[in-house]
Fold:
Amino acid sequence: MYPVGFAAATTWTGMIFMVGPSYAAQRPLAQWVPQGTLRNVPVRTDCKMTRHSVGVSLQPTLFYPYGAIFLCPERQREIDSLRPGASRFFLVHEYGHLALRTREEAVADRWAAKQLAMVPSEMGTLRAVLFYFVDEGTFFDPLYGTGFDRALRVARAAGIGEKEWPLPLVAYAKAQERRKANGTTMRLRLHDAYTNAAQMIIWIDGQPVGVLSNVDGEKLLQLPRLVPGQHLIQAYQVWLYHSEPSGMKSEVARRLQAECELTSTGRKLVVLDLRYNGPDGDILSIRADEVR
Structure:
């Protein structure tokens, strides 16, 4: 998780994401442990560093060549008091940011769920965090979605059968399927051969909707139903990258923003065209159009 308020703090190789010796040395072998170079990642306790969120991960820097993870014990205790064992998921989530070199919270959620699902003794962790997210319900964060969104993401990535889901999550999943069938989605399109990947937070008519990105593969953003007429589309915290076929990424620009008007007629797909003119002063422009 990266800092509250959508403020990214450092470069691609040193950015912070929200959530002694290596943590792997502190856990019983029966539990999940980081593999490969993740074993070298130091894990510290520092609530100021996490801004009193449960945790943050720092991508590799000269000072932390393998990256670093910071945890807030106060938040861990608070989470575990509600759903014992749930806070462990957030540590693995931060390892996901480091393992995949990604800013995307949904990607780190899925990675953590898949990792924990491979260890039978961690099923308790998965069930605890599943119920914790369901408890958060419709509380919305544009970087993560709702608590239900995160619960559904974890359940599906971990391969937890629907029969084991809390009933409110089953109902939410069915409602989401209906929404996808009847709602509107947004797709990102870039027009620069070099700047070919982007991530941003989309707001519509002054309300946060979610993350639109093609950094780790194209992902359509589900939008609320748009009534016919004019709508203000705003893109905040826009990060731009050049992505190689190998998956390696280099940062082009960060923390940009732009806005445009969309004239909606009620169609189900909106394409957001993004253009960037870096040499002329980090000029970013967007245009939104409905397509059939």
The first strand starts at residue 16 and ends at 18. Residues 167-182 form the longest helix (16 residues). The CA atoms of residues 29 and 77 lie 23 Å apart.
